[in-house]
Amino acid sequence: MSDLLYSEEEEALRSAVRGLLADRCDAATVLARAEAPAADGPHDRELWKALTDGMGLAGLLVPEGLGGQGATHREAAVVLEELGRAVAPVPYLTSAVVATETLLACAGSEAGEASELLAALAAGRTVGALAVGLAVAPGAPFPGVRHEAGALHGELTGIADAAGADVLLVPADGGLFAVHTAQDGVTVTAQTSLDLTRPLATVTFDAAAARELTRDADAAVRRGLRAGAALLTSEQLGVAEWCLTETVRYTKERHQFNRPVGSFQALKHRLAQLWLEVVNTRAAARNAADAFATDSADADVAAALAQAYAGSVTVHAAEEALQLHGGIGMTWEHPVHLYLKRAKADSIAYGTAGRHREALAGLVDLQAP
Q1: Alpha-carbon distances, residue 138 vs 20, 142, 194, 227 (angstroms)
Q2: Are 272 and 243 contacting, i.e. CB atoms less than 8 angstroms apart?
Q3: Closest Cα partner for 84 from 292, 313, 356, 329?
Q4: Contact criterion met (CB below 8 Å) for 67 and 122
Q5: 341 and 239 Cβ atoms separated by less than 8 Å
Q6: Residue 93 gets which letter from DSSP?
Q7: What are phi and psi of 60, to 5 degrees?
């Protein structure tokens, strides 16, 4: 049986990432980025450079032979926990996890387009995004575009972090193609997004040049979305932990009737229930990350189970933080609204809880004797 406790190396990684984020990604910085003009881009490029160039985190899931760190999903999960705690406006989940896993399904040991892109993503000098809507669950049908004479035509909507991506992985006519966003024929239009730290966009292709990565887009996209759903739980855990920690701290400091409001029994019960839900989310997140790290036969079950549970818990944690701060989260200056929006957006990312419960039921039926 796997040990789901954090190893010394994982705790050291957590400490390093948390320290960096404390210096470069406080709530005021995140809010300023969310309010920045569109021309400045949706991501904090300096923070992304520190995470990638300085710490090599973009290549954790990429084998050393392809230019990465050769680490596992457990280490990537630790990074995502900390990024979730800071609602960091960086494309780690979409580029270093989903796009990377999608490319790993296309890449072999030999040099090729997919391998070259993996090396670029691992170095952090290129940001990738899978051109499949953020709400699409693993194994669910997804729209593509037309491929004619080496060029792509059509439109895709709800693509997370497309506005900050250098290359898109685009499904078309059963294949998967790489398209650079700076070229002619590619138009990325920002959509109105609830979570401004992970914005959505519509991507239009008008005879955009593309290079084929694989003829089996279904398998590649499914691998990317599976990893995204599994490790999204760790990001949700980070969001929920911040909400719980900050709410407990606030209720200790806030006084009413000459007593800390946290001493009232009704609030104690609410916070105790929230603590229990967060602890359970941690167990689900660690199990999912470990299942993918060890290539377990139960990886699909672990991912579906984690997502069936974590979405509602994270939203509940953010809503409780808002309520127990006395509604202060409705003012733009307080960071609670950033966490509530991320929690709400994450609750439908890579499939809703209901969609994952359906998948879990089907997986359990398949494994039944």
Answers
A1: 32, 10, 22, 9
A2: no
A3: 313
A4: yes
A5: no
A6: I
A7: -60, -40
Nearest to 336 by CA among 317, 313, 349: 317
* DSSP H stretches of helix in the chain: 8-24, 27-35, 45-49, 73-85, 100-104, 113-123, 217-253, 265-293, 299-324, 336-346, 353-367
Which amino acid type is present at position 138?
P
Of 133, 152, 130, the residue nearest 142 (C-alpha): 133
Other Cβ atoms within 10 Å of 350 Cβ, number:
31
166 DSSP 8-state letter: S
Structure tokens at 252: 């200790």
Phi, psi of 90 (to 5 degrees): -130, 155
Tokens (6 digits) for 301: 């079950």
Residue 180's DSSP bridge partners are 167
Q: What is the pLDDT along the chain (369 residues), one digit of tens a residue?
A: 678 999 999 999 999 999 999 999 998 899 888 877 665 677 899 999 999 998 999 999 999 999 999 999 999 999 999 999 999 999 999 999 999 999 999 976 445 889 999 999 999 999 999 999 999 999 999 999 999 988 999 999 999 999 999 999 999 999 999 999 999 999 999 999 999 999 999 999 999 999 999 999 999 999 999 999 999 999 999 999 999 999 999 999 888 888 888 788 888 999 999 999 999 999 999 999 999 999 999 999 999 999 999 999 999 999 999 999 886 656 677 899 999 999 999 999 999 999 999 998 888 765 555
Q: Angle at Cα 292 formed by Cα 25 and Cα 14, nearest 5°?
A: 30
Q: Which residues contact 80 (CB under 8 A, 6 or more apart)?
A: 92, 93, 97, 231, 232, 234, 235, 238
CA dihedral for 154, 157, 159, 164, sign (positive or negative): positive
**What burial class does residue 298 get, using C-beta atoms within 10 Å of its C-beta: 0-12 exposed, 13-18 middle, 19+ buried?**
middle
CA distance 34 to 290: 33
